[in-house]
Design a protein that fits this description.
With 133 residues, the protein is an alpha+beta fold. The chain has one helix spanning 8-28; strands at residues 34-38, 42-48, 57-62, 65-72, 88-95, 106-110, 113-119. The strands form two sheets. The chain has a four-stranded antiparallel beta sheet, with no helix packed on it. The chain has a three-stranded antiparallel beta sheet with strand order 3-4-5. Residues 25-133 form the SHSP domain.
Length: 133
Amino acid sequence: MSLVTWDPFKEMDNLFNRYFQRQNREASGWLPAVDIDEDEQAFHLAFEVPGIAKENIEVSVHQGMLTVSGERSREEKGQNHRTERSYGKFSRSFSLPDNIDPGAIEARFDSGLLILALPKSKLLHEPKRIEVQ
């Protein structure tokens, strides 16, 4: 028998992500694929957003939620025979772990990918003793 450490915060993140993904999918019609990786210093998110100018993408943090939204517009080029790519507005939201400093989040655009770095804050890991008066 092996023991598996249960992480209630991970369960809550999964729950919120499933809820917001379903809500966003219903509202927007399409969502860019995202990869989420973690190392000792940060979380890294890479969104597939080919064909979208960086001016049409917005990244925001509000009350512990990271939201990436934008719009891919379709150019009319004569008669259309087939459309397989999705167009229109999208929005994806993710709950941030407590150890992320929203003011330190960085975003860059590279070859059709929106890449976000969410640095971890070491200060939040240390317990703080509160004196009872």
